[in-house]
Amino acid sequence: MQTIQIQAEQFFELLKLKDTSMWEIFAQMIDGNEKEIIFIDQEEKILFNYILPSNQEKLEEDRKEFSKQFADKLANLN
C-alpha cells in the first residue's frame, strides 16, 4: 500500500483557495490501489490518517459516513 503524507494546514488552505472539497481531490487520486493518506502538522506529527479506497463506490460510502459522523458531533456540541 502506498503511503502519502500531506501537510494538513497547507492542504486545507489550498482547498479553500480552489473552492474544492477534499473528496473531489481524493476521487482524483483513485487508481485501483488503496493508499494510506497521513495528515501531518507543521512539526510532522501525525494528526490523522485515511485509507483511500481503490474505487469510487467505497469513497462515496466513506464520504457519507464521514458527513453523518461530523453532523452527529456538531449536534452533540450544542
Task: Tell me what you see in this structure.
The chain has one domain. 53% of the residues lie in helices and 24% in strands. It has three helices and three strands. The chain has a three-stranded mixed beta sheet with strand order 1-2-3.
Structure keywords:
78 residues; alpha+beta; 3-stranded mixed β-sheet; 3 strands; DUF2750 domain-containing protein
Outline the fold blueprint.
Layout: E1 2-7, H1 8-18, H2 22-29, E2 35-40, E3 46-52, H3 56-77
Parallel strand pairs: 1-2
Antiparallel strand pairs: 2-3
Largest sheet: 3 strands, mixed
Low-confidence stretches: none
Number of strands: 3
**What's the rounded overall pLDDT mean?**
92
Order of SSEs = EHHEEH
Q: What overall geometry do the principal axes of the alpha carbons give?
A: globular
Q: What is the count of DSSP helices, taking H or I runs of 4+ residues?
A: 3
Secondary-structure content class? alpha+beta
End-to-end separation in angstroms reads 39 Å
What helical percentage do the residues reach?
Answer: 40-55%
Cα gyration radius (Å): 13 Å
Number of domains: 1
Record the strand order, biggest sheet.
1-2-3
Percentage of residues in DSSP E strands: 15-25%
Protein name: DUF2750 domain-containing protein
Short description:
The protein has 78 residues and is α+β, with helices and mostly antiparallel strands.
